[in-house]
Write a structure and sequence with these properties.
The complex is a heterodimer. Chain A is an all-alpha fold. Chain A contains 25 helices and three strands. Helices cover about 50% and strands about 0% of the residues of chain A. In chain A, helix 13 packs antiparallel against helix 14. Chain B is an alpha+beta fold. The radius of gyration of chain B is 27 Å and the shape is globular. The chains are: A mainly alpha, B alpha+beta. At the A-B interface, helix 2, helix 3, strand 3 and helix 5 of A face helix 14, helix 15, strand 3, strand 5 and strand 29 of B. Strand 3 of chain A pairs antiparallel with strand 3 of chain B, so a sheet runs across the interface.
């Protein structure tokens, strides 16, 4: 009880005894004090020993003052009064002198007496019963989470009805009904018991691979389940992931018909995958590792059809630039040869395959581009990297919006966090093939990629010699997506983001670029290997927004850094890789510095934020700096699922999403 | 009988603070006579026949009686003295010597010397009989009881040896070296000597005011002792002055009871020869005075065997303590006759079923028809007549039993957890009724609360005035007497003035017992929800109480180290079971109601015969205070759980430990066998319920070569095989377990937000 590791018993010193005696007016000799002190210690220990049995019989672990008092009372000693409080009492030393005392705070009796908030009595004691374990079975993993194991729950009538209604609505014909059902699935707090059933339904993707519509609906169901803040997915994450992966990677029966837009499905599934991973990845250990492995397997398998490869690429892209860097980038040289062969075959019979090949090409291009951008960003401004990466993400996945109303893109891994998670997960996975992977320096990477993509990469990276022409960017986009289909994941390509040509139009009608875009870091952004970009293309009115968006990552961070740290102007703190801006940054007049926003884009989520005003943020959303949102986003090691607030359009000025 | 006699005196003479308990206890002892229980209502009145059973008054008995006489005299219980003298047939000259001692007792200085003489005399007697032959063993146990009585001073004075304090170290080291050098087979046995020798040598040093030497001695050898003595050593280490020894109960336990060791003859001879060669009188004296060496012929025991049985405060049980016959069989189920007239139709319909079932049950159990050879006589203990309602309940029970799920390792029970919410007052005890319709909780704020766990609400009987109004002839009079206005899910009963540590329903669900820190046991009516009786007698906290399975009797045990048997219509106990060396922490009735088991903080379990108050079993092996006990439904086995987190299984017939279930990490607060005895459930403070394969544990032993004669059991370490499941709660220490009649496991506890 009073025992400690270093000193076995509490001891009352001789001095304390003398002090106590003096305070009551008795003089004690040293001998007497020593004897008394020893005896006091012994009596204390004895009382403690006997009080411990009151604790044991009260079935407690904590010895209370009451226990001690009972022990004293039964040994005919007066109880110590006044210490019966449940609250812990701090025992403090006084500064001067070796005096210890129990802190006793003053209580304002007047205040207490006149207090209007009279505390309610505690609730009535009651007994509640629940079946904890059925037939001796119970999932201990669940038990420790404190939830009732699923084996125990029998479905009530109502739940069963709900299940039937929901599945019928989602898989049925009525789109409105489906919307309502999905919304409910996303917000209902009482469906935990049905989770296994829904997961089972979703695992039916394999049987409807011919029906694009049904697959789409099932994926929507996944999304709703994943976004439901009340559900604890637990090990069902694995099952959901495998269903989603099926949609991403498998050569679906539906893709035989070229008219079927299975590409969109794959895009959506990839987006979903990354969303699941970033919100629930911590529930299953090694998930990231497994996903990467299977993607890599598909990518490195030349027998697989191109649509599978496409899925692998968008999947990697959705998982973040680090995944791209680790899996796609090393495979690129090998893969390139195959792709080139497809693309170079102009025979009529190959037309369909070639079209597919272009898709893959486009997807790779987009992925690689973002890789470069993000890498540059992470290298240049680690501190601001989060914002930048989110920016990149917003550019990266614009195309899914129309296919998924209400699904905002998941948070992009922060540069740091992405690394953190990846390395964390990899540590768990043994024999990880990229264990010994060493990062390739950015210039080397760029030059290698440039050797594959040539000018198209440069253009999209806004550094090419033909910078001036906004249409070239558009051309790139359309070239990579020859069908006129919107380029998925095209950070730049989709421009206004609304998708397809409409987005392009929007972008072109977007002339309100102020002159200070001139110092947008296009120049900075160009790698050294590139010939120095001479012209200030950005100033050109009518320049495709796509361009500026692609380049804006650094511009944003620049402007943000300038706004957040007015002292250190535009020059980024550590930009070793890229040459400094040639143009002198305006020293003063920061408020008008880079105000770029086109009003039209305000309405579209994820797009407007592309340009950061350096004004003080408009009232209403100014309270939280963007980073405050940003660092909330990827939640690692969370205990319970946080209610995730998706950023809404009016945040888009500040928030990358 | 010996236990009844010397126990209470022993315990009560321990501390001066307990003097009031003392006189009370003494009064009760005379009240509890051998034949009294033949008619319980008269038991208390047929008093004072105390010592007739002690037919052969050997010299030791004589001594004991003298000591008792002296004690009584000292407390001015002259009438008792006379009676005792008459009964024991002692002449006046026999009384002279206690007189002398008693007068000496007033003067401590004289007393020490005299008491010491008397003790040494007694010791010589006891050792002369005990050491060479085991046969005479019962005698010294009484002698030791007798010698311990005169006074605390006398007890302690036995330590007044005038040895050179510096030599203690040498002695102990010498013995240690010797024991370490003997053959392996003897070493384990002789190692048992270390702890008692260490304790007594330390106490001698302290008593003779060699404080520094004592401390050095403790520091040097304290670490060598077995880890399961750590608690006692901690107490010991805090004692450093002679004055401390006076009030310390643990120390008195060391002194007043001889530490019992079991050693094979070979090992003992070895030790004896060594000590004689070395002329090591100091140690030899201690062995003779404070140790009781139970010598057996045969193979020395292995370390594991010794460790399994040791750990109790006073060493192992003497073998002869467990030799007596225990009728562990079940009583014959009463035949349920034709239903009585006033039973309603429903019951009559149901009556047909048990008639049909009964033959089936007979063929299964085979107990109802034939008398179990191990069962006690049906009327050995007078039991209350079955009431109509009891018969109805029996019928219900049988019906339920036919629907019982047969449990097995493949078919484990479901567990329902009853959480006490908002139990800020501190839940200290829980009980369920046998039919699982009510749950009662005892709380640290002295309240007793009863809940209905069925939709049926709890109702009071109407007030007397209202009862006058109702038509007593009507068929539903039992329904009419209930006051519907008072219907509620829970009832709170106030009456105690301290935490309620024990609680028990009667089998007919009409009464509830609660025992409390305030020293009383209270009987509550579940018709009126008021207190009917407060049984006073313990005077110290009462840790546990339980109704007999047949009602009427109940048992309680508490801090005063005795367990008491009561009948509900007597305000004084019928029996006092004394003998434990520390608090009686838990009490349990045998299913046949003829025996009770008590667990104690002295780390022993004892079984007592209700009929004559004898201690029939002493079970040692626990390493911590025992907090729960349970009998198997067939009455053959006993399970006990302690603060050390281990469950031990005992065979009652042979008095042997037959299993050790390790797994819990904290105090076990409840144990329960399933209705058919297949599964043992244990509940612990570590927030888990564990299920154990009880039938396998019992079978494994029964197929073994049962070493009943020697009592040296070789326990297989198979806890992991026997563990069928571990079930966790979120943050709720599990306080109570109960199997429903259909073998659903109910667990209860208060949620504990840390």
């Amino acid at each position: 009880m009073t025992e400690r590791e270093e000193r076995r018993f509490a001891e009352v010193s001789r001095e304390s005894v003398k002090l106590m005696a003096e305070s009551s007016g008795v003089e004690l000799s040293d001998d007497v004090a020593a004897l008394l002190a020893e005896d006091v210690c012994y009596r204390l220990r004895e009382a403690t020993q006997s009080s411990s049995q009151f604790m044991r019989h009260a079935k407690r672990r904590k010895l209370t003052v009451e226990d001690f008092n009972r022990a004293l009372r039964w040994s005919n000693v007066d109880a110590v009064c006044g210490y019966g409080s449940q609250e812990p009492m701090p025992f403090r030393p006084a500064k001067e002198g070796e005096l210890f005392f129990v802190e006793d705070r003053d209580i304002n009796l007047v205040e207490l007496a006149l207090a209007t908030n009279i505390p309610k009595g505690c609730a009535e004691t009651m007994v509640r019963v629940h079946v904890s374990y059925l037939d001796g079975k119970g999932n201990l993993e669940h038990g420790k989470e404190g939830t009732v194991p699923s084996a125990v729950q029998s479905l009530s009538e109502d739940l069963l009805k709900y299940y039937h209604q929901i599945t019928r609505a989602i898989l049925g014909e009525d789109p409105h009904l489906m919307k309502v059902a999905l919304l409910d699935l996303q917000s209902s707090s009482k469906i935990a018991a049905l989770l296994p059933y829904f997961v089972y339904v979703i695992s039916g993707v394999k049987s409807v691979s011919h029906d694009l519509e049904q697959l789409n609906r099932l994926l929507h169901m996944v999304r709703s389940l994943v976004q439901n803040p009340y559900l604890y997915l637990g090990s069902y994450v694995r099952s959901l992931v495998s269903s989603v992966m099926y949609c991403i990677l498998e050569p679906l029966a539906a893709s035989i018909n070229p008219l079927n837009d299975h590409w969109t499905l794959r895009d959506y599934a990839a987006l979903l995958l990354s969303h699941i991973f970033w919100t629930h990845g911590d529930l299953v250990s090694g998930l990231y590792h497994q996903i990467l492995l299977s993607l890599q397997k598909v990518l490195s398998d030349p027998v697989r059809p191109l649509c599978s490869h496409y899925g692998a690429v968008v999947g990697l892209h959705a998982l973040g630039w680090r995944a791209v860097e680790r899996v796609l980038y090393p495979h690129l040289p090998a893969y390139w040869a195959n792709l080139q062969a497809v693309l170079d075959d102009y025979s009529v019979s190959n037309a369909q395959v070639k079209a597919d090949g272009h898709k893959v090409y486009g997807a790779i291009l987009v992925a690689v581009e973002r890789l470069l951008k993000m890498k540059a960003l992470s290298l240049s401004q680690p501190a601001e990297g989060e914002a930048g990466s989110q920016q990149g993400m917003s550019g990266g996945l614009p195309g899914f919006r129309e296919s998924s109303p209400g699904l905002s893109p998941p948070p992009e891994p922060l540069a740091e966090a992405g690394l953190g998670i990846a390395s964390h997960l990899q540590a768990g996975g043994a024999g990880c093939p990229w264990e010994d992977w060493t990062p390739v320096p950015l210039p080397a990477m760029y030059s290698e990629l440039y050797s594959f993509f040539g000018d198209s990469l440069a253009v999209r990276f806004s550094t090419g010699p033909e910078l001036g022409s906004g249409s070239s960017a558009g051309a790139t986009a359309s070239q990579s997506g020859p069908n006129g289909r919107k380029e998925p994941g095209g950070g730049a390509g989709a421009g206004g983001g609304a998708g397809g040509s409409a987005g392009m139009d929007t972008a072109r009608k977007m002339p309100q670029l102020t002159a200070n875009l001139s110092i947008s870091p296009r120049q900075d952004g160009s790698p050294r290997t590139e010939p120095a970009p001479p012209s200030l293309a950005a100033t050109a009115p009518g320049r495709s927004l796509a361009r500026s968006s692609s380049s804006s990552s650094s511009s944003v961070q620049r402007s943000r850094s300038s706004s957040s740290r007015p002292g250190q102007r535009s020059a980024g703190p550590s930009r070793d890789i890229f040459p400094k801006a040639r143009f002198p940054t305006p020293q003063a007049g920061a408020p008008s510095f880079s105000f770029l926003i086109g009003g039209r884009q305000m309405g579209r989520r994820c797009q407007g934020r592309r340009f950061q005003t350096s004004f003080n943020p408009p009232a209403g959303m100014s309270t939280l700096p963007p980073r405050a949102y940003a660092h909330k986003l990827p939640v690692i090691g969370r205990v319970s699922k946080p209610v995730r607030r998706w950023t809404y359009s009016h945040y888009s000025l500040h928030l990358p999403l | 009988m010996a236990a009844v006699q010397d126990g209470p005196i022993e315990s009560e003479s321990d501390t001066e603070t307990k003097t009031d308990a003392l006189s009370d206890g003494a009064g009760n002892i005379t009240g509890s006579s051998t034949g009294a229980l033949s008619s319980p209502p008269n038991a208390a009145s047929s008093a004072t026949g105390t010592s007739k059973s002690m037919a052969p008054p050997g010299p030791e008995n004589q001594q004991t009686l003298l000591a008792v006489l002296q004690y009584l005299k000292k407390n001015n219980l002259l009438e008792s003295v006379d009676i005792l003298r008459r009964e024991a047939g002692l002449s006046d000259d026999g009384g002279d010597s206690p007189d002398a001692e008693g007068s000496g007792g007033s003067d401590p200085a004289v007393k020490v010397g005299e008491g010491g003489d008397a003790n040494s005399l007694l010791n010589r007697v006891s050792i002369a009989t005990a050491a060479p032959v085991v046969v005479a063993a019962p005698a010294p146990s009484k002698a030791s009881g007798g010698e311990s009585q005169p006074d605390v001073n006398v007890v302690l004075s036995a330590y007044s040896q005038q040895g050179d304090p510096a030599l203690y170290d040498t002695y102990y080291t010498g013995l240690k070296n010797f024991i370490e050098s003997v053959l392996d087979c003897h070493r384990a046995e002789l190692s048992q000597l270390f702890y008692p020798l260490f304790v007594h040598m330390y106490l001698e040093l302290v008593y003779n005011s060699h404080e520094q030497e004592a401390k050095a001695f403790f520091d040097k050898f304290g670490g060598d002792q077995e880890c399961y003595y750590a608690d006692d050593l901690r107490v010991l280490s805090s004692v450093s002055k002679r004055e401390h020894m006076r009030g310390n109960e643990t120390l008195l336990d060391f002194r007043t009871s001889k530490f019992v060791l079991r050693i094979s003859r070979d090992s003992y001879q070895l030790l004896k020869r060594h000590l004689q060669e070395r002329q090591n009188n100091q140690i030899w004296n201690i062995i003779q005075e404070h140790l009781y060496i139970d010598i057996f012929d045969g193979m020395p025991r292995a370390k594991s065997q010794i460790d399994a049985m040791s750990g109790a405060l006073a060493g192992e049980a003497r073998r002869e303590a467990n030799k007596g016959k225990v009728f562990y069989g079940l009583l014959k189920e009463p035949e349920i006759e034709v239903p009585l007239d006033d039973e309603d139709e429903e019951a009559e319909n149901e009556e047909g079923k048990p008639k049909k079932k009964k033959p089936k049950k007979d063929s299964m159990g085979n107990k109802s028809k034939k008398q179990d050879p191990n069962a006690p006589q049906q009327a050995r203990i007078p039991l209350p007549e079955l009431k109509d309602s009891d018969k109805l309940d029996k019928i219900m029970n049988m019906k339920e039993a036919t629907k019982r799920i047969r449990l097995s390792p493949e078919n484990l029970p479901s567990i329902c957890f009853y959480s006490f919410l908002n139990a800020y007052q501190g839940l200290t005890a829980v009980d369920f009724t046998d039919d699982s319709s009510l749950i009662a909780g005892g709380f640290a704020d002295s309240t007793v609360r009863v809940w209905s766990v069925t939709p049926k609400k709890l109702r009071r009987v109407k007030s007397a005035a209202d009862l006058n109004m109702i038509d007593k002839e009507s068929d539903d009079v039992l329904e009419r007497i209930m006051d519907d206005k008072s219907a509620s899910e829970a009832k709170v009963m106030y009456g105690h003035s301290g935490p309620v540590y024990g609680i028990s329903f009667s089998s007919d669900r009409n009464y509830l017992l609660s025992s409390s820190e305030d020293g009383t046991v209270r009987l509550w009516s579940l018709q009126t929800y008021t207190c009917l009786v407060g049984y006073k007698g313990h005077n110290y906290p009462v840790w546990d109480t339980q109704f007999s399975p047949y009602g009427y009797y109940f048992i309680s045990g508490g801090h005063d180290r005795v367990a008491r048997l009561w009948a509900t219509d007597h305000y004084q106990p019928l029996r006092i079971f004394a003998g434990h060396l520390a608090d009686v922490t838990c009490t349990r009735f045998h299913p046949n109601s003829n025996y009770v088991a008590t667990g104690s903080a002295d780390r022993t379990v004892r079984m007592w015969d209700v009929l004559n108050g004898n201690c029939v079993r002493i079970l040692t092996g626990h390493k911590g205070p025992i907090h729960c006990l349970t009998f198997s439904p067939n009455g053959k086995f006993l399970a006990s759980g302690a603060t050390d987190g281990r469950v031990l299984l005992w065979d009652i017939g042979h008095g042997l430990m037959i299993g050790e279930l390790k797994g819990h990490t904290d105090t076990i607060y409840s144990l329960r066998f399933s209705r058919d005895g297949e599964i043992l459930a244990s509940a612990s403070m570590d927030n888990t319920v564990r299920l154990w394969n009880a039938s396998k544990a019992f079978d494994d032993v029964e197929t073994d070569d049962f070493t009943a004669t020697t009592g040296h059991i070789h326990l297989p370490d198979n806890s992991q095989e026997l563990l069928l499941g571990t079930y966790m709660t979120k943050s709720t220490p599990v306080v109570h377990l109960h199997f429903t009649r259909r073998n659903l496991l109910l667990a209860a506890g208060a949620y504990n937000p840390q």
